[in-house]
């Protein structure tokens, strides 16, 4: 929050307090939400997200918000301190909140944690950022790094946010912090995460809107240490003219900063991490419309916008999207627009061309044998740009722009098994790890299922292309997911269900074709009336 001369810890304490699971992530089927189909809302290729105080720890608050705005939330943002401890705020604590991470990820959303370097850790104050590379906080940093590495799913992490805002003790110029100190500390923390294998962390570098204090470029830690560029900016209108100078449009708030970020790197995605407006002094609905429609058109590097949905305890500023019916309607409308490029045309033989959004992914990851042909046009499914192919559903996720997760696969195995009423059958019950069905089997504790014989060989020999040597475990997992059933007979064929596939055993075929993938994409699209 970019408010000068007010300590953010005081502000935080005054607040009133994707199953579509990411296709490349670890998951546990013990979660009741695992089979829910839940997607990311997006507008014009821009992922949308929200900060609601306490919502990551009290998901009913997020449920209420999503019901109110009519769309699921793509990115859920919350704050955690390094050392500050507020016993009356269970959601603002120094230790990595793995429960919140899993809760948000199981909903199909991306977690974003703003990690605030203040308080006392091992008797020292990390807001004096030059102390970070001394090693005094290594144990604490490594706890987070190891925890996120073990979590395994993609997560955004924002360190030293608004490092050009003098309200924050870690900021440039405070506590003797120089640009060199901030860069060295950022790189030090980043490298410790890399050493612990936390490659699932996406690093978000997000200053406040640029001021005369110090330039963005002076503080930038370098392309190798940043995945997303970000910025915070607000319109205080007539409520806080002393802070923001009166009513300011989204373009006026962000234009200069977005140009400066693009000058640093013209290809990295940009996230507006915190933004909101008050009602007083202008038209809040029009402000929201401009933010979500005009601004991304003017600055196509913007790939995510997160609303700061909190009401300050001093009763002056109401940043909530429902501060008026017109502002809520504007926000709801912003979330209705689909993302992606124009739909493909149907070919003369009645089949569909593969969308240009998904064609590169199809070609790079197995093509016809793995996915089959397109069976629908490009469409919008639950807020995502999507397209069904014979054996899968491709989904475009703008919140993962610039990563290997930009195109994800649908949980079509889970969806088909759910439709057929199989999930409660004995074939999907947890299997004992002590009793292997045959000698050539592997046990997956994540789902308590065995994978054996020809199905195991096929699973290990095929995967998405991440550039690993041969086919790695993570590449196979990204393509098929974990097994969710044992082998059983279905319609006269031996099958086994996975999160994103159904394997079928055809002993009558030549050896290389004895394992075939079920045409789940076709089946699901046909049942939904999408193949007409």
Structure characterization notes:
It is a single chain. This protein is α/β, with parallel strands linked by helices. It has 2 domains: 8-334, TIM Barrel; 415-521, no CATH class. 28% of the residues lie in helices and 18% in strands. It is built from 16 helices and 19 strands. The strands form 4 sheets. The chain has an 8-stranded parallel beta barrel with strand order 2-3-4-5-6-7-8-9, surrounded by 4 helices. Strands 10-11-12-13 form a 4-stranded antiparallel sheet, with helices on one face. Helix 13 (412-419) packs across helix 16. Mean pLDDT is 85; it is low at 2-44 and 338-350.
Query: Please, how many domains?
Result: 2
> Order of strands across the biggest sheet?
2-3-4-5-6-7-8-9
Number of helices: 16
Query: Can you identify the CATH superfamily of the largest domain?
Result: Glycosidases
Which segments are poorly predicted (pLDDT under 50) over 5 or more consecutive residues? 2-44, 338-350
Query: How many whole angstroms does the radius of gyration measure?
Result: 24 Å
Mean pLDDT: 85
User: Into which percentage range does the β-strand content fall?
Assistant: 15-25%
**Principal-axis shape:** globular
Based on secondary structure, the structural category is alpha/beta
């Amino acid at each position: 929050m970019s408010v000068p001369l007010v300590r953010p810890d005081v502000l935080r304490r005054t607040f009133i307090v994707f199953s579509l699971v990411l296709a490349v992530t670890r998951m546990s089927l013990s979660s009741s939400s695992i089979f829910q189909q839940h997607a990311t809302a997006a507008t014009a290729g821009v992922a949308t997200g929200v900060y609601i105080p306490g919502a990551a720890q009290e998901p009913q608050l997020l449920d209420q918000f999503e019901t109110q705005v009519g769309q699921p939330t793509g990115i859920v943002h919350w704050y955690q301190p390094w050392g500050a401890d507020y016993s009356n705020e269970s959601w603002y604590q120094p230790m990595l909140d793995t429960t919140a991470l899993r809760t948000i990820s199981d909903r199909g959303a991306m977690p974003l944690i703003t990690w605030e370097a203040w308080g006392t850790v091992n008797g020292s104050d990390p807001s004096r950022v030059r102390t970070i590379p001394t090693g005094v906080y290594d144990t604490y940093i490594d706890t987070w790094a190891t925890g996120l590495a073990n979590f395994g799913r993609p997560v955004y992490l924002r360190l030293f946010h608004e490092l050009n805002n003098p309200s924050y003790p870690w900021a440039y110029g405070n506590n003797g912090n120089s640009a060199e100190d901030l860069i060295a500390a950022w790189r030090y923390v980043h490298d410790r995460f890399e050493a612990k294998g936390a490659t699932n962390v996406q690093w978000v570098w997000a200053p406040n809107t640029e001021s005369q204090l110090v330039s963005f470029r002076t503080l930038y830690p370098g392309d190798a240490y940043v995945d997303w560029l970000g910025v915070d900016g607000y319109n205080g209108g007539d409520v806080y003219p002393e802070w923001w100078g009166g009513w300011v449009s989204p373009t006026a708030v962000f234009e200069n900063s977005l140009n400066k970020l693009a000058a640093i790197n013209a290809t990295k995605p940009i996230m507006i991490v915190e933004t909101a407006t008050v009602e007083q002094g202008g038209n809040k609905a029009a402000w929201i419309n401009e933010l979500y429609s005009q601004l991304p058109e003017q600055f196509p590097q913007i790939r995510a916008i997160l609303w700061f949905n909190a009401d300050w305890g001093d009763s002056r500023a109401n940043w909530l999207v429902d501060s008026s019916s017109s502002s809520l309607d504007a926000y709801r409308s912003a979330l209705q627009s689909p993302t992606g490029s124009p739909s493909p045309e149907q070919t003369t033989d009645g089949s569909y061309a593969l969308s240009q959004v998904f064609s590169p992914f199809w070609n790079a990851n197995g093509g016809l044998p793995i996915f089959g042909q397109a069976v629908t046009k490009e469409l919008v499914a639950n807020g995502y740009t999507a397209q069904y192919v014979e054996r899968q559903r491709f989904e475009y996720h703008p919140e993962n722009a610039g990563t290997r997760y930009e195109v994800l696969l649908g949980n079509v195995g889970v969806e088909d098994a759910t439709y057929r009423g199989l999930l409660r059958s004995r074939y999907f019950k947890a299997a004992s790890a002590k009793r292997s069905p045959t000698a050539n089997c592997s046990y997956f504790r994540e789902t308590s299922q065995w994978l054996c014989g020809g199905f195991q060989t096929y699973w290990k020999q095929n995967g998405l292309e991440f550039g690993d040597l041969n086919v790695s475990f993570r590449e196979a997992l990204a393509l098929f997911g974990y097994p969710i059933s044992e082998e059983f007979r279905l319609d006269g064929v031996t099958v086994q269900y996975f999160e994103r596939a159904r394997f079928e055993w055809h002993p009558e075929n030549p050896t290389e074709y004895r394992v075939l993938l079920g045409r789940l994409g076709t089946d699901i699209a046909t049942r939904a009336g999408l193949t007409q």
